[in-house]
Amino acid sequence: MAADLDRTLAALADPTRRGVVDLLRRAPRRASEIAEALAMTRPAMSRHLRVLRKAGLVREDAQDDDARVRVYRLERAPFADLRGWLDEVEEFWGDQLQAFKAHAERRARGRKA
């Protein structure tokens, strides 16, 4: 899972690719629509979509009526894995902050006595 998470984070490190994800979370889109929405050339967008595909974050489907048209949509699994990891990190810090709070309260009570 660590390698998958590394690929996900590396792909999402680029603001353009996060913009692509933001667009695709609303609805599947053709590459040309994504490029236009983000004011990019189609070749540049193609490179970003390739990174997202290799990371498993998006999938590319051909249209039934025209195999040349590709529609991109988000894949849920990598985002669920990322959410799980973030929940673990958040839980760790929550536990650490709770322990620090308890320590600080004990010290404060000790000074009053």
Task: Itemize the secondary structure elements and their pairings.
Elements: H1 2-12, H2 15-26, E1 29-30, H3 31-37, H4 42-54, E2 58-62, E3 70-74, H5 76-112
Antiparallel strand pairs: 1-3, 2-3
Helix pairs in contact: 1-5, 3-4
Description:
Helix content is 71%, strand content 11%. The chain is mainly α. The protein has a single domain (2-112), classed as Orthogonal Bundle (Arc Repressor Mutant, subunit A), CATH 1.10.10. The protein has a three-stranded antiparallel sheet with strand order 1-3-2. Helix 1 (2-12) crosses helix 5 and helix 3 (31-37) packs across helix 4 (42-54). The protein is elongated, with a radius of gyration of 21 Å. It starts with a helix and ends with a helix. The model has no long low-confidence stretch (mean pLDDT 89).
Features:
mainly alpha, Arc Repressor Mutant, subunit A, 3-stranded antiparallel β-sheet, 3 strands, Transcriptional regulator, ArsR family, WH-like_DNA-bd_sf, ArsR-like_HTH, WH_DNA-bd_sf
